[in-house]
Target: Amino acid ABC transporter substrate-binding protein
Amino acid sequence: MKRCLLLVLLTMLCNQVTANALPDQNSKSLSIGWNMWYPYQYFDKDKGVVGLDVDITKAVAKAAGYDIQFSKIPWKRHLKLLKTGGIDLSAGSSFTKERANYVLYSKPYRKEVAALFVQTGRYQEINQQIIDLTDFTKNQYKIAIEEGYFYGEKFESLTRHPAVKKRLYKTLSLETNIEKLMNRQIDVIVADPVTVKAFEKKYNLQGQLARLSTPVYESEIYFMLSKNSQSKETLKKINLAIVELEKSGVLNCLINQWGGLALD
Model:
């Protein structure tokens, strides 16, 4: 009962401090894409576009003096639009040198991890075989990832290995990967533990997925601003807003509310 009350109070506090993060400053509009990425970005039939990154984006935009216009866009197309200036902003982004050619990166605002997951009943078998990511070159395990996402330089290098490349499956959603894993069409999936935990709860899969010991990737997460549509002045305002939300406690409040990973 006390835990439930605490969660209710925390939710009310987050909503209040987000709404009052900073006053609007002659708001201008920024366009941002979103795609299904539970619990960071998703559509609720009663509330519209919601999620951890959605709440943080709204709070940062309000603090920086911007309105936000959300559009549902597949991730690969989102990146192309950032290149051309067809869209202004992206949330939930890891840093890559290639993207830095066409976007401005904000200060980091949260942390993200990628890990390996298997069916619980196969944990002992596979965990003993995969001590390091390079061990995938020595066995026949099939791996599934979500297309367009970055899982770190070491994993990217692994995907180019001939022995791994022919056993690597790229799909459009974690839902598809979990379904294939449960049907034993694949052996291992690469995913964010926060997302996996949310899916376990949503689809009543608690106890059916196990995380392997081998680490994949840990990264700070940023906003990306299109160099073709936004200036360093916009970036400065976004960064100042992130700092203000960190100092006020709003940022950690939102991250904790959604079960995300705060920066150390």
Q: What stands out?
A: The chain has two domains: 2-111+220-258, 112-218. The chain is about 40% helix and 25% strand. The two ends are 30 Å apart (CA to CA).
